[in-house]
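Follow-up to my post from last week.
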Amino acid sequence: MASVMTGADDASGRAPTAQAWISERRKVWLWAAVAVLVLGYVARGVLPESLYVWPKAYRFPLQTVANDWLDQLLRRTVIFDAPLRMWTRSFGEILGVPMRFIQSALANGWSLMGSGGTSTKIPPIPWIAVSMIFASAAWYVAGLRLGLFTVATFFYYAAFGLWNEAMLTLASVSVTIVLGVVLGLIAGIALWRWPRIEVVVNPLFDIMQTIPPFSYLVPVLVLFGFGPVAALVATMIFALPPMAKATAYALRRVPASVLELSDMTGANFWQQQSKILISTARTDILLGLNQLVMMSLAMVILASMIGAGGLGGEVLKALQSLRFGRGLEAGLAITFMAIQLYNFGHAFATRRPSHDKAAQNWKRRTVALGMVAFAIVLALIIPDFRQVPASWTISTSDIWSHAIVWLNGNLGWFFEAFRANTTFWVLRPLLGTLQGIGWAPAALAIGLACFAMGRPQIALLSTLIIVAISIIGYWEPALITLHLVLAGTLVSLIIGVPLGMWAASSRHVYRVADAVVTTLQTLPSFVYLIPIVMLLGPGDVSGVLAIAIYAMATTIRYVSHALKEVDPGVLEAADMFGATPGQAFFKVRLPLAWPGLLLALNQTLMMAVGMVVITSLIGTRGLELETIEAIAKVQPGRSLVAGLAICAVAILIDRLLTAAAVSCSPSKSRTHRGTA
Amino acid sequence: MQNRRYSLLIATVMSLTVSTGLAAAETAKFQGTVRIPVYNVPDSDFIDYSFGQMLEKAGYRVEFVKIDYTAHFTALEFGDVDLSPAVWGTSKDLIDKTLASGSVKNSGSLGVQTRESWWYPNYVGDLCPGLPDWKALKDPACIKALTTPNSDGKINYLGTPPDFAAYDDERIKALDLQVHITLPGTVGTMVATMQGAIQKKEPIIGWGMTPHWLYGSGQGKFVEFPLFDDKCPTDPSWGVNPNEVWDCALSTGEIVKLYNSEFAKKAPELLRILTNFKLTSDDVAKGISRQDIDGAPPEQAAKEWIDAHKEVWAKWLQ
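User reply:
Got it. Predicted complex:
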């Protein structure tokens, strides 16, 4: 919340356009908010302590209530004479059928039990054939470049001994994506048809996107059993909202004339949805698909904890046994898979039906089928092409472990000093300041700041969130989480903003930066944890650094986007009036890009919250620790409550910054931009 | 000659196994797949793979299910895994809760005593001569000797991964200790950090457990806290601090073998094998060190044990 205050402050100081709208009265609110914070901090000894820490005697034990409630729901709820979990599990069985089939075809094979204990095994499809099928499909749909990339990707899996893992992940992720597209489209259409359900659905989506997966691990396990289906459900919770939001957003942008056309041509409901609406809104929906693919692959690691196995399990194992090389190899495999799947899906969705090139199409099809047939023949003749032989695999593990030993030996003093200095000069003072403020002054100040922005509903919401977190006794751990998030965001901004500005300055740099950012975003965050913890040791500094690296990609992307979006006409005008480059940047470009920059800050903070939930695996202690620790103490309800508290913090930050971005918008004409 | 005798022995053992396998097949041998959890923890994985590979040698079909340790209790309760031969008795809450559900039973000890508590390297004993008695940790001179630049003037203590249920916060509060906790996040980091501190001879106390190649070696000792009592976690009046719970060590225990009772009905002979299954602390410590020090995968460590102890496990299968 401190950053919100300074953000609003800077806006009034630096941007003359923004200053215009802040009426004198609103300025008073803002100064009152600052005064409350400062007074609250200074007067801690004088004011009653219960304004700072909620008195223990008046705490509401929501955690215990949630434990009992979950126990009741999961273990004792009976619907039509069958326990609840039987219903959910039968439903899960249906979902599991296609997934198990693909898994058997690609990785496991089938084993059939005959009578009398004889078992026959049908092997999975040979690896060379799988590679060729996917490559041919990619070539047929998207062209030579993706075809070659696909071949390279599949050979990478084989070469690094990740074939089976990659196939398991590919099977579960492809089912997840197909299901996610279907459910996302349905939810998106529903949101578009009946905008009123947004009141319920949008907060639900926010919760689904920000709740740490650990906190719903036990309920999902009980309801869906252990295995790929449970993992599918957990992934869906996380990955569905962006797809649904993007669909609804895209449909809203469909011009009214298109709808009129569909009415005039007499299309029925399904024709209208599938033929006209979806294809008109395709480009925007594809953004949702992109997010769906990225998020499904981001979840594979946590999904491996409840039975998805595959590449995610390899990365997790690498973290647990501190083998960075292995983690990086498996992590890159996930990145390549994400890029391949997204481009394939993109090409498939934007494919144009061509009528005049039938002969050419036929030729392409023949070549594609010929390649597959050739691969199958190859596999039939040479056994090495059926299962990847162990002697063909390579590993870079040794190089990486040598590199880390070398770094520790030669630069150990530097890491030690970095850690100590960051702890002393950044983290401890930050946490101390936050802890000094207390819940009551914080709630009051944020409420006042919201009034300054003219948003009484958000004032009410944020006050409620802070009071609720204090009542259930999570104020202190929430502050620990918040200080990690803020420090991580700060580091990310210090490095990411200049890089983003640089990327916005030229097209070539932008293109390179975009590629790097995409790779960073799809590389599973667990992979960064390994070298960080090996070099810096466990603790808050490592957590902050991991958060910063993870969030930085988003900072760079949004900052460069915001600066590029500034109308070039205005910049030319500034140039004509004789502004120096510095003036043009600080007096024209920056103020105009300000709402976009606030959005960048918002998204960076959201990413930081997303990352903080796993930093407890390298030793941070806040609400994120609570979500895991509670499971070990058999209190799944407590874990869920802690997870929801993290959601609440994230939602609070998001609402405040969105409100700030709207009120800083130079001509107020820029409407609320959404945060999907 | 020596070689020949050796191969003869193997042949005998092999034929014995095969014949017992066949004999079992003639009676009602379990036809399904036995699902055994593994959780990326070196000690448990070694035990789990050893048990599973033994079953495979006996002709059963085994699936090793990769799962989180705490999550596996839920899976066991609802029959999503069948048996778990490597449950540390020190995770008492989870075991008690799972047994209370009625669908999971305990088939007894693996024969390995476990201990989990605070542990310190020997040179730390020189810095703080009152150790291993926990009261030494309250001595100001001792606290001063055990601080590091990062520990805020308190004792530098390396805690446990979040899923351990060590009750350190409660213990520190109840015994009123001046301790700065660093959390490692994972077991791998916990061991690596302790090793790094030992190399640099840093003052440190950390969580430790035996059997283990590091904590069980002569390189250090456990801190002696007041012994665990059933009343300690629930009754504040028990123990040195009359107002707080957990003014004691964690319970020492054994590695126990849990199984789903529905599964045992379907496969009574597997329950018998599970009950027979016993290892020694040395076996387990060696299994861990093969993974942690030599970098072998747990399957490999287990295979080595299976190959070297054929006479031992052949008896359990009869």
